[in-house]
Amino acid sequence: MDSYNSPSTKPLYRGTQVVWYILGLVEAMLAFRFALKLLGANSTAGFTSFIYGVTHIFASPFLNVFSITQLEGSVFEWTTLLAMMVYWLIAFAVIKLFLMGKTVSTPEAAVKLNDQED
Q: 15-39: buried (b, 16+ CB within 10 Å) or exposed (e) per residue?
């Protein structure tokens, strides 16, 4: 049975789609957070308050990693950029883990092993 017709191919594909979708949402929200802080957005405005509230859970593990760069109300939040990078790496690792569960034919496995030796 080739790996394209394996019963595990479609669920793996859907799983990778879900991971990339969730990452896209998190990254977009963190990008809004970064931009709003950088542009000195009013934190009491509805949209700004919503973005800060939703993204706090994602940014909070990184908040004390770097000092905050601030200039006249604008904040360059390095920690948000770090969070975006870390979440991307986690998603990439999860996708790789999913792909390790993919059915592989013996000839295909032999070729991939030979490629890893080079």
A: bbeebeeebeebbebbebbbebbee
Q: What's the predicted TM-score (pTM) here? A: 0.80
40 token code pair = 């000195």
Name residues whose C-beta falls within 8 Å of residue 80's C-beta, 6 or more positions apart in sequence: 30, 33, 34, 37, 55, 59, 62
Q: Where are the domains of the chain?
A: 7-117
Query: For 1-24, how does the pLDDT look when each residue is reduced to its tens digit (9 = 90+)?
Result: 455 566 667 788 888 999 999 999
Average pLDDT over residues 85-114: 86
pLDDT in tens, 66-89: 988 888 889 999 999 999 999 999
